[in-house]
Amino acid sequence: MFVVRALAIAVILLLLPAMSNCGEPPDFDAAPADRPNLEHKRKPGEFKRNKYGVIDPSPDVISLQHLPKDSYGFVDWAKAISDGLISPQESINGASPRLKPEDRERFDGDIVLKSKKAFMPDVLFPHAAHTEWLKCSTCHPKIFRKKAGATPVSMNGIWKGRFCGVCHDKVAFPTRNCFKCHSVKRESKR
Hints:
The protein has 190 residues and is mainly alpha-helical. It contains seven helices and two strands; from the N terminus they run αααββαααα. The chain has helices at 2-20, 77-82, 101-104, 127-131, 136-139, 155-159, 178-181; strands spanning 110-113, 123-126. The chain has a two-stranded antiparallel sheet.
């Protein structure tokens, strides 16, 4: 009898710390829902409720099905932003970030990166597609020097998570289709 009572007390003591946090909502922003008629004005951690006030257990995520695709079938995030289908926040908590002076300047120029392999087309890097939601200091000078061609980019480095690989293959489209980036026909040598 004593052993059963001691075991029951031990189980209760082990569960008490876990149970004390049950009533507290997690401290994070809710994701926008994929239903156009649903109210999105919940405070972080509040339960989503249906029109009757009952907790709605359906996923609180965005379906990627309605987003535009590029010619390779990947989501075209820049087009989704320019079409007004998505509107990324400037920060996780929704507050405006403090911008450095260099982050306030806008540069929409395209950069052509020469391929090291003769059979491979050159790469067109579109600044405009990247500066839709990133600031300059996200990449410069931590990942790339600000002068075109000053950072020796390699595919090996990209595949190892450096250069473009800091984002691509993680949060941006994958690098599996070479010709999504290698899209500029090389000038023929005469």
